[in-house]
Amino acid sequence: MASRRGPVAKPDDRRARHGSAGPRPRTVVLTPVVTPPELPADVLPAGIDWHPETRRWWKAWQDSALTDQLSEVEWHELVVSARLHHAIHAEGDLRLAAELRRRVGAFGATAEDRARLHLTTAEADAKEARAHAGQAVSARQRYGNVRSLPTAADPAAGLAEDEEGPA
Fold first, then answer.
1. Is residue 111 part of a domain?
2. pLDDT for 53-111, tens place per residue?
3. CB contact at 8 A, 37 and 75
4. How far apart are CA 164 and CA 157, in angstroms?
5. Would you tell me the crossing angle of helices 72-91 and 52-63 to the nearest 10 degrees?
6. CA 12, 15, 21: angle at the middle one, nearest 5?
7. What is the mean pLDDT of residues 103-132?
8. pLDDT over 80 (residue 19)
9. What pTM does this model have?
10. Does residue 58 or residue 163 have the better pLDDT?
């Protein structure tokens, strides 16, 4: 299914106006990385506990490599997302699904989101390095023994006497 946000952006060297570097990146000093928090008990109304599916979802985010560098503010955004997740599963309110999808997409929840955010995983980099290892072989080495077939216009091109030419 195609994304509603449009196709993945072209690499800078393939853009039509490749002379312009685009917007200048801004350097921001992030606040210290915090350890992944537990689901807060005071977010839901009194007497209501987190839905078991939301607890599993939160555990997956805590263990994800995508959240290793999150600040406290970003974890608060995930808490808001957890509230939406809880409402979808506990109350069956599917009207919130699009908002939840948008929020977790900002953190790279799916492969499509990671492609849009230009995120790659260390595992993908390692697989790519293994795939390209030992590929410094020239075309002459790979295809050195490939020869062209004789054509009908060149009957003396080396057909053996027991072989027949093209029919």
1. yes
2. 999 999 999 999 888 888 899 999 999 999 999 999 999 999 999 999 999 999 999 99
3. yes
4. 12
5. 150
6. 50
7. 81
8. no
9. 0.59
10. 58
Domain that holds residue 84: 48-126
Q: Is residue 14 assigned to a domain?
A: no
Residue 103: inside a domain: yes
Which residues does 99 contact at the CB level (< 8 Å), separation at least 6? 84
Eight-state DSSP code of residue 32: P
Q: List the one residue out of 96, 63, 68, 95 whose CA is nearest residue 82.
A: 96
Amino acid letter for position 135: Q
Q: What is the dihedral of CA 42, 48, 54, 58, to 10 degrees?
A: 20
How many folded domains does the chain comprise?
A: 1
Contacts of 74 (CB under 8 A, 6+ apart): 67, 107
Look at residue 93 and tell me if it is in a domain: yes
Q: How many Å apart are CA 124 and CA 115, to the nearest integer?
A: 12
